[in-house]
Amino acid sequence: MKFRITHTTEYQYTADVGRCYNHAHVIPRDVDRQRCLKSKVNITPRPAFSDKRQDYFGNWVYHFAIQDDHKALSITAESEVEMEEKPNVMSLDFGLTCRDVLEKLKSEKHSEILLAREFVLESPMIRAHDELRNYVTNIFADDRPFLSAVKGLTEKIYKEFSYDPGFTTIATPVMEVYEHKRGVCQDFAHFAIACLRSAGFAAKYVSGYLETLPPPGQEKLVGADATHAWFSVFSPGEGWYEFDPTNNQMASYQHIVTAEGRDFSDVTPLAGVIFGGGESHSLDVGVTVERIG
Amino acid sequence: MVENPGNVSRQIRPILLSMSPKNPSQIQAQGQTQVQAQTPINADAIKSLGLGEHWEYVLNGMGSLGAKGRADRIEKMRRILRDDGATYNDYSIQESAGRSWDLDLMPAVIPSDEWAGIEAGLLERAELFNLLLRDIYGANDLVRSGVIPPEVLFSHRGFLRACHGIQLHGEHELIVHAVDMVQSTSGEMCVLTDRTQAPSGAGYALENRTVMSRVLPSLFRDSHVHRLSHFFQRLRSKLATLVPHTDEPRIVVLTPGAHNETYFEHAYLANYLGFELVQSGDLIVRNGFVWMKSLEGLSRVDVILRRVDDWFCDPLELKSDSQLGVPGLLSVIRAGRVAVANPLGSGVIENPVFLKYLPQISRRLLGRDLRLNSVKTYWAGDSEDLKFIKHNIQNLVVKPVFRGAGESSQIGAELSKSARAELLKKINMFPLRYVAQDYIVPADIPTIINNEITLRPTILRSFAVANDKSYNIMPGGLTRVGLNKGSAVISNQVGSTSKDTWVVASEPQLVKPSPFVDNKGQFRFAQQASLPSRVVENLFWMGRYAERAESALRLLRTVFVVVNGVERTPAVCRNKLLVALTEITDTLPGFKGAADELFDKPDEELLAVVLDPGRPGSVKSCLNSMLASAEESKELLSSDTLRVINDIRDANEGLDQALGLGLVAAPEEALDPLVTALMALAGLAQESMIRGVGWRFMEIGRRIERALQFTTLTRSLLIEELPDEEEESLLQAVFLTLEVLITYRRRYRGRIEMAQALELMMIDCSNPRSLIYQLQQLQNHINELPHLGVDSRELQSEQRAALEAITTLRLKRLVDLTSADDESGKRAELDQMLSRLAHLVSDIALEISDKYFDHRVGPQQLVRAVWEGE
User: Could you tell me if A129 and A218 lie in one domain?
Assistant: First the structure.
């Protein structure tokens, strides 16, 4: 399945910005089940400098700097990706138990496992917490197959938390999300990762897009899609598995990956330093995911 | 908006002070021994003290100086250090101008054969740390192959993922490596800490050496001490090779600013090495390169020797709220268009956990064991070690693995039971974040305390600098002495002293002719023609504040004389003078519109105008601002100027004592030393400062200020027509203030007339305090400034303002200026003219500030993202 993704970010400032320096995670990376066929980034006003590179986690980062006065900034990333359509029928009831996973993470010296331990540790936005460990003790029972338990966690979050776009911001701490049991995809992904790490497992944050289909008989609206976020867990010897707690499912061919990191702060879609710009600004983000074959 | 042009009486410098992060560099060592050495010292005594015979020469030399001789040298040493402006700023004292750097007359002596062993060990260690750094930001073999637990690296806050994959040009990533070590009582050197991001101390070592060789010239010469200059020569050459394909690299030293504790060293090194000293605001990323903002425009920067901690260097990709960095810097580094030494992210190998795994790391990366020992280190992240720490905390020193978080080392033995339990609780909660290390009992060496030779423990910081193939080690280094009895911590920040470190050869060393003849490869460095705009701006404000303080002091002297004088001054004059003082210093409300009681008892208000540093416009606050500006442009000031600045600082601090207990008899005399010092400063600027751009801006500052002070004073005192006697009395006061009383008397003999007075004070070009003189000087300087990108013959707006001011003044007739309006009794024409001139001069100040100084708007985050350390 091939998709074209158009991701537009627009900033309006109340005063002139004299110059700005930015980096953006808006170009899809390659992963096992996904290949980025082509991508281009358009920026207005024209940047004086731009550059694309792969970061520490293997994501594409687009750097750019604008040196002329401007009151609006617009970045459009257009990419085409090819997704593997694996039927999602894998049984999660086989494989390593939770106890096995912890044991292997602790003692095995295989480099893939050693490197995965980076994702057990706390990260800028996610801290381990005793309360969260208690919250998942029953799920991650020693003898339960690990991936089945992760599925259980995904389901639990889906059932107990309500989707509430107005409630959180990008900086809402995980424990606050836990307390109120509400938030958006990013909060649920962070929360799931915090639970997993509190229990000693390795988990990554994944950002990307989700293809949404219009109700039958209706046209798909341009810009109706959104950026999405979910998480990925590591099972030693078996690899990484992606789960989407917002939709209570494993990632499918409709989950297009942009970037992976320890948490949101590693993969911020657009970060920057501006000089000027006044007190406030408005932000507008539009995403369209189209099937192209 | 910087200043309000409508308010001509006062322009205040907009202050953008960069605060440096706290950077505690505490170093542990063991307590003191209390052995008193007797003088004279003989070989037996040296042996009985457990010292090697290499001490004999120095100790005998020291002994033969006698107490008097030593006291003289110590005094001389202090004087030189003070004159050089050697300071170590203490964060705990607010508004502190820096504590004088403290140097012990007794050097630390190491025989050269012993040093050879240490040197080889340090060299090997620098190589290893270089490989370690390269591995961490490159292949990551140590983690992949299981040599170190992944958490050692991944949980450390100094590991900057944004720096992954960056490499410097050449063989080395680690350009400067510093090591803190102690000699244990068994005589073995043991490393306590490695410093790898922006090690301080090399400059202090150089300053120590310079001072010692001046204070003890013959003892120094005859001891055949290994030279230090070679080390700096190497540093200079290495930095120049970091950017290939550049014939004339521009190298800058990046400092957090004058408030950093080691700012003296930053300025000192920049000067010694011939590099520009810059702060974050002086640098800008444009078109994919780093540039320095200077008066001539932007100059490209090729290499940055940084003294800013790596986490702070780029707010775009590292610490997002940092004010000490350059946004976009990392992306220029990645493109290889600027080199930063030590590279960003190098702080990660300061993690003391690496000491625990150093033997394995060394075998993996170097293929052998290290010869220099490190202190035994236990990591709470290792379950066995954690157990050990719990049971032995009373014998251990506990350190955080990351230095930047403001936590310092704790000595188990010095903690109360409850504090120990508290610490263990923290360790249990965050085991990855703590190590514990054995105590090393450092050997004592001779030290002079209260002019007596006693023994004290010391710690040595050594320095390695990369060259083409390997490293060069500074012979010796910076020795610090533990002074507080019973405390095991030796640190600059808690007030210990330092020593010059003498590696003594049995044979004299060949002396290299000049420190800066590079024998390998001739590098040419970009000319230091351009100054950062910030430095120029500081000189401008230094000029203004010096002048402002001086005129306030002059008027104050007059006021004191009038208020307390023997001769009765008419009340109206006295009161007018007090109001003029308020206006000149802009310390409103002050005497302006004040009740009669204040005029009757003016002492308290007068004292406040002098002494209250919190009151803008007071003498103290002007002097503080002037001193702060001087500090920021320190590297441009001559040593004589620095000495005068020190005198001003002392006089400023002494003011409280001179005046503080209430007004003494003849308080005007207490102000004299300050006036003299300020005049010396002005004189030095005239006599010994290169007529460069910097000097011109300082002069412009002075002329602007003096012209404005004159108009304020005159408008305050001479506009209202008064009876002859009172007018004469006021004119006398003005003359006294402006130092023209004698000139007037000699020239005009008779009584003082208004017309003649105005002629002398306003339009006499031969009087350097006249108004016309200020305006003409101002015009000259403005015409000499570089006018960037201006090709037209049309006058610039500041030139136009100067021309208008001069013309306005010259076209006036004295008779019109002196005659008063019948109705109001005021000299309206004089008033209007002065008001116009003040506006014009203020406009000039604003134009210059707009055009030449850097008015950066502080950066802000596009997405507010400050989660770190929540």
Answer: yes
Range of the domain at B250: 30-375+440-504
Whole-angstrom CA distances from B786 to B690, B692, B781 are: 16, 11, 10
> Which of B833, B729, B826 lies closest to B771 in space, CA to CA?
B833
Give residue B869's pLDDT: 39
What is the tally of structural domains in chain A? 2
- Chain B residue closest in CA terms to A261: B161
pTM for the structure as a whole: 0.84
Answer whether B222 touches A (CB < 8 Å): no
Ranges A141-155, B508-522, B683-697, most confident: A141-155
- How many folded domains does chain B comprise? 3
CB B26 within 8 A of CB B409: yes
Looking at the structure, do residues A102 and A80 belong to the same domain, yes or no?
no
Same domain, B345 and B225: yes
Strand partners for B377: B437
Under 8 Å between Cβ of B709 and B584: yes
Q: Which two tokens stand for residue A244?
A: 């989407």
Distance, in Å, from the CA atom of B770 to the CA atom of B764, rounded to the nearest integer, reads 6
Cis peptide before A45 (omega within 30 of 0): yes
Q: Is the peptide bond between B780 and the residue preceding it cis, with omega within 30 degrees of 0?
A: no
Q: What is the mean pLDDT of residues B353-362?
A: 97
- DSSP secondary structure letter of residue A143: T
**Average pLDDT over chain B, rounded to whole?**
85
| Lowest-pLDDT range of A164-178, A263-277, B635-649 | B635-649
pLDDT at res. A132:
96
Sign of the dihedral through C-alpha A169, A174, A175, A180: positive
**DSSP state for residue B55 in the 8-state scheme:** G
Chain B positions in Cβ-Cβ contact with residue A18 (cut-off 8 Å) = 857
C-alpha distances (whole Å) from A237 to each of A95, A124, A241, B140, B459 are: 10, 27, 12, 20, 49
Which residues of A lie closer than 8 Å to B, measured between beta carbons? 11, 18-23, 48-49, 51, 53, 55-57, 63, 65, 67, 109, 111, 114-115, 117-118, 121-122, 124-125, 170-171, 173, 265-266, 268, 270-277
Answer yes or no: do A119 and A9 share one domain.
no
Return the structure tokens found at B567.
């001769």
Quick one: B127 and B51 in the same domain?
yes
Asked whether residue A116 is domain-assigned, the answer is yes
Q: How many residues does chain A have?
A: 293
Q: Please say whether the beta carbons of B521 and B247 come within 8 A.
A: no
**Least confident residue range of A60-74, B101-115, B638-652:** B638-652
> Which positions in chain A touch B285 (Cβ < 8 Å)?
21, 65
**Which region, left, alpha or beta, applies to residue B590 given φ > 0 means left and ψ of -120 to 50 means alpha?**
left
Structure tokens at A283: 């932000």
Residue of A nearest to B861 (CA): A273
pLDDT at B520 over 70: no
CB contact under 8 A, B331 and A51: yes
What pLDDT does residue B788 have? 67
Residues B249 and B102 grouped into a single domain: yes
On chain A, the residues whose CB falls within 8 A of the CB of B165 are 56
Query: Which chain A residues are within 8 Å of B162, Cβ to Cβ?
Result: 55-56
Residue of B nearest to A276 (CA): B857
Nearest to A115 by CA among A199, A241, A240: A240
Parallel/antiparallel/unpaired status of strands B303-306 and B339-341: parallel
Residues B708 and B635 in one domain: no
φ and ψ at A270, to 5 degrees? -145, 120
Dump the DSSP string for A41-106.
EEEESPPSEEEEEE-TTS-EEEEEEE-S-EEEEEEEEEEEEEE----S---SSSS-BHHHHHHHHH
Contact residues on chain B for A272, CB-CB shorter than 8 A:
316, 861-863
B73: enclosing H helix or E strand: helix B56-83
- Residues of the domain holding A21: 2-84+268-291
